[in-house]
Amino acid sequence: MPIFWRPQMAIGHDEIDADHRYLILLINTVELVLRFPENRPHIEMALEELRRYAAGHFEREERIQIAWGYIQFDEHRQAHRQLLRELDVLVNSIEVLLDDPAVGPEGLRDRSQELTNFLRHWLVDHVMKSDMQLVPLFKKSKVF
Description:
This protein is mostly helical.
């Protein structure tokens, strides 16, 4: 089931909020393409775009945090690095399954559910909890 952007997800910084909207789109895309494991090029393209965009988003968000003097920057940056490592492990496992002729569509679907669950957990736990800690920073400066 797709994730939809809701106003409660906004943290009050246009660039970060736009990134979060696109990440939702990418997560929905990955979930969709993984339903069709026989279409490997689409899976690879969606996973690569998610990896690329997540890394870029974290870099942008960290630059903004530094510019705004976010005092919990180091912890947030460490959380970003951990999320990227976990994403890489899951994406690599999907790629290994795609390369294994002995794994049928059901095997890939089992692992793809793990990736989808991770992405949803990531969105809820990181964006809706960690990133929400940025709201007071932006409210103070009347970004809202």
